[in-house]
Amino acid sequence: MGRLIVIEGLDGAGKRTLANGITAELTARGHSVARLAFPRYSDDVHAELVAEALRGNHGDLADSVHGMAVLYALDRRDAADALRADLSAYDVVLLDRYVASNAAYGAARLYQDSHGDFVAWLHELEVMRFALPKPDLQILLQVPTEVAARRAEHRERTEVDRQRDNFESDASLQQRCGEVYEQLAAENWWSPWVVVDGVNHVDFGTLVDKHVLA
């Protein structure tokens, strides 16, 4: 059975870059790696509805924190069997966002912390009811909110189809979300966490040795 590794962090934190570095380190050592990013905007109808709602479609759907959270959760539930298959076929399955993203953003939108009603409700839905595969490790790629915002703005200018949505462009929301992420990591919410400095150089060899394959 492979190891399920999740990368979490703010929009613009550098999750894709971190995933690329971890993948390169693992494959250089002969390990097989499967990768997936949530939401699966091009592969799942629930994720498509999320994207459309964040662009202002579907009336007031985006205003419903729980409604949006359910759509995100259903996207993952529909991917669960494929995840389990990948875990049987690969040494490492690397995810860009997973359940903790839903917890952090939902709690932040409601001005709650990791001990609030939303995170408890979300845990009951995705972890208990949907029984999604449990991560072996969750990596919080930690960067200051302003750094993440600059990176997201640069990505928006330089990459096709990377326009920021309403959540990504809300600086206050991003700040609160970062605080909830830090709380989740400190509590080892659902499974073990490690915090990685997303501003300075990442030693991928050490990260893989001490955490990813540990």
From TrEMBL:
GO molecular function terms noted in the UniProt entry: ATP binding; dTMP kinase activity
E.C. designation(s): 2.7.4.9
InterPro entries for the chain: P-loop_NTPase (IPR027417), Thymidylate_kin-like_dom (IPR039430), Thymidylate_kinase (IPR018094)
Source species, domain of life: Bacteria
Domain Thymidylate kinase-like, first and last residues per copy: 7-190
Reaction it catalyzes: dTMP + ATP = dTDP + ADP
Entry keywords, A to Z: ATP-binding, Kinase, Nucleotide biosynthesis, Nucleotide-binding, Transferase
GO terms (BP aspect): dTDP biosynthetic process; dTTP biosynthetic process; dUDP biosynthetic process
Any one GO cellular component localisation term in the record: cytosol
Keyword Metal-binding: no
Family: Belongs to the thymidylate kinase family.
Job of this protein: Phosphorylation of dTMP to form dTDP in both de novo and salvage pathways of dTTP synthesis.
Name of the protein described by the UniProt record: Thymidylate kinase
Organism of derivation: Saccharopolyspora phatthalungensis
